[in-house]
Amino acid sequence: MIKKTFTRLPFYIRFHLLLAAFGMLSLTIYRFAFYAMYSYRIQNWDLFLILKAFLYGIRFDISVICIFIGVSLLYSSIHFLNTKKAFRFVWRVVPVFFLIILILLLGADLVYYENGNKHLGYEAFAYLGFEMLPLIGSAFSQNPFLFLASLLGIGLIIYGIYLVQRRFPYEHTPFNYKIATLQFLIILVFLVLGIRGGVQTSPLRTSDAIISKETMVNDLILNPGFTAITDLKMTEVDKRHFMPLEESTQIVQNAIAYPDTTFVSKDYPLLRKKAALGKEPLPHIVVVVLEGWTGKFIDLIGNPKVKGKEVTPYFNQLIRKGMFFNHFFASGGRTTNGLMALIGGIPDRPGLTAVRTPQILNRFSGLGSLSKGIGYQTVFVTGTDLSFNNKGSIMFHWGFDDLIGKVQLEKNPNYKTGPWSFWDEASLDMLHLELKTRDQNEKPIMAVIHTGTTHYPYVVPDETYRLFDKTVEDSEYLNVLHYADWALHEFVEKAKKEPYFQKSIFFFVSDHSHHRYLNYYEDRNVPFLIYAPGKIKPELRTDITSQLDVLPTILGFMDRELYFSSMGRDLRKTKGDSAYFAYGNIFGWIQNEMLYFQSVAGGIGETKTIKPPYVDTNICKVDISQCKNHSDHTKAFLNLSQDLLKANKLFPSEKELATIKSKN
Contact 139/111 with Cβ under 8 angstroms? Predict the structure, then answer.
């Protein structure tokens, strides 16, 4: 009966149904593989919840299939045009292409989730083009056999579909226009229902996948096709989180105010004037952005030893010689998020990063621009290609005139490269040489470096740095972190022997955690150290702080009048008590020993402890009024940063700034 009914359907409907069935099979296999790979993350295993997750996942899978092949199906159902071969060619090729893209996403997500701690989002589309090359290189380096097997599998799938298409040529079924129109409308209705996930009031959202306190169980419901598309749509603040500009401005200004600075413009709510405190020579500023350093393995934050071996022995000594923050939080989860907070002064948004939008070209009070305004020479160094993530263009936009990346490092035959970037010892040595040379000028130096060896795929340059074997959990990352610690030691020891060292303030800060095998708190907590012997006394700071506080703190070392825009505080002028973050499809607020986060799609909000044992508190569900402070600050930071970025009101033009200065 079913077979007979199926054969009576028009050819193009049968064709798309077969593709849909293959897509659903692929998504089902993916979900079983995802569970097999990451079920270790589930702390309280519940069979009913697991089965429920698999069942709920079907709804998201249908939505994705309707998105990926639905347009083609609708196109093909313009029945009378199917007599034309060119018209048929489109719907016989396009959905196959999109299905292959979906399968590639599924495979990539199985690898990405381990290191990203979330499903693929905008990254799935952001790195199409030449930026994909280092990602492909990393994948091949990590597992050449699996990489080649995947390519072979994709090739066989494409060839198999080609054979099926040849085996079953198109057969046109004549319809009168009434039946053809009715068929088109029925298909349209089913596709709309499938894409939106049913007949409910609101379309399907990521928040509909929240059925458990276990993040892994909720993520089991989702698939990378859905999350990637959701991320691309996430460019506006959802109306559920809307807060008027006046209210968000007041909350944010109260949260970030500190002595010797004043807000000076109603049109530019973040613009502040820092008073001139002296005329002493300006220090060199050296900011070392450590790729993926996780606080869990750093002393004074977590346990510095794994299996009795110290992972970062040198850095553990260094943090006792400067001002070290052990409750310091990343404002995001990717390098772009971190650099935007550290160098740009404002948080990135959840979902699609601002770096991937035209808004990144708006006016910022970037660290380099502010420094140049008072006489600094600026340089940025990275071990990767400057074009990756538009890093070079963005740092130039933020005021860094001299940019050094892969192309420049390749000119030195002594510098060797790894699968992701040049080894840290090479990029740090380049920084050392730049500082040594530039110190001969009279102008102070503003230097920023972004290291790279501790980026996936976690390969050490030499077996001598392999501290742990494969029997130790996360051994690959621990080994590269151990190597990076050694490279940092080499850099600091060389610096100590040069005149520039005594003139410099060093800031060591991680851009984000490495995400693997971490709980929600560990995934946010990263190291931050201010180091300058003779200038900074050793001190352990336990107050709650974040990457947003770094730029104002750096400016605090410059005893000159400055006008700047930032959503942070000078940590030498005030104690921190809160931190804002946004990553993936969540954004949140940490304060008073409670971590609060909200889904971009809405909902009550979740609360967790920031001290062991790390557990859900359910405060919002028991008494939502107790979450009001955290909820208000979360919405205020999200709304104000996005409103100002969208309206290009972060920082004034030169003419506007001159007018503001004349009034202050």
Answer: yes
Closest among 329, 292, 282, 300 to 538, alpha carbons compared: 300
Confidence of residue 312 (pLDDT cuts 50, 70, 90): very high
Under 8 Å between Cβ of 558 and 375: no
Best CA proximity match to 542, nearest among 328, 226, 277, 364: 328
- Do 574 and 181 touch, CB atoms closer than 8 A? no
Distances in Å between the Cα of 120 and the Cα atoms of 110, 516, 585, 589 are 9, 15, 11, 23
Report CA Rg, the chain. 27
Q: Cα dihedral sign for 11, 16, 17, 23? A: positive
- DSSP letter string, 253-270: HHHH--TTEEE--SSSTT
Sequential DSSP letters for 636-654: HHHHHHHHHHHTT-SS--H
Measured CA to CA, the distance from residue 218 to residue 212 in angstroms comes to 6
Percent of the chain with pLDDT over 70: 94
Once rounded to an integer, what is the mean pLDDT over residues 153-172?
A: 73
| Predicted confidence (pLDDT) at residue 2 exceeds the cutoff of 70 | no
Q: Which helix (H) or strand (E) holds 335?
A: helix 335-342
186: enclosing H helix or E strand:
helix 177-196
Helix (H, G, I), strand (E, B) or coil at 528: strand
Tell me how many degrees the CA angle 228-394-412 measures, rounded to the nearest 5.
110
Per-residue three-class SS string for 24-55 = HHHHHHHHHHHHHHHHHHCCCCCHHHHHHHHH
pLDDT for 234 equals: 61
Strands 578-583 and 562-565: unpaired
Structure-block tokens of residue 373: 């305004």
> Across residues 588-613, what is the average pLDDT?
88
Which two tokens mark 313?
Answer: 């022995």
Residue 414's CB is within 10 A of a number of other CB atoms, namely 7
Residue with tokens 């890093």, as numbered in its chain: 391
Peptide bond into 457 cis (omega under 30): yes
**Whole-angstrom distance, CA of residue 191 vs CA of residue 183:** 12
In DSSP terms, 579 is beta-bridged to 590
CA dist 188 and 141 (Å) reads: 45
Q: Confidence band (pLDDT; 50, 70, 90) for 29?
A: very high
Q: What is the mean pLDDT of residues 576-595?
A: 93
DSSP helix/strand/coil, 616: strand
Residue 135 has pLDDT above 80, yes or no: no
Helices and strands of the chain, counted as H and E runs? 22, 19
Confidence of residue 5 (pLDDT cuts 50, 70, 90): low
Q: Which segment, 96-110, 154-168, 421-435, 593-607, is predicted with the most confidence on average?
A: 421-435
Instruction: Report the C-alpha gap between 506 and 406 in whole angstroms.
Output: 24
- Contact yes or no for 59/198 (Cβ under 8 A): yes
The distance in angstroms from the start CA to the end CA of the chain is: 83
Q: Look up residue 347 and give its DSSP letter.
A: P
The pair of structure tokens assigned to 347 is 């948080």
Task: Name residues whose C-beta falls within 8 Å of residue 306's C-beta, 6 or more positions apart in sequence.
Answer: 297, 468, 472, 478
Query: 328: which residues sit within 8 A by CB, 6+ positions away?
Result: 295, 509, 525, 526, 527, 528, 545, 546, 547
Residues counted in the chain: 664
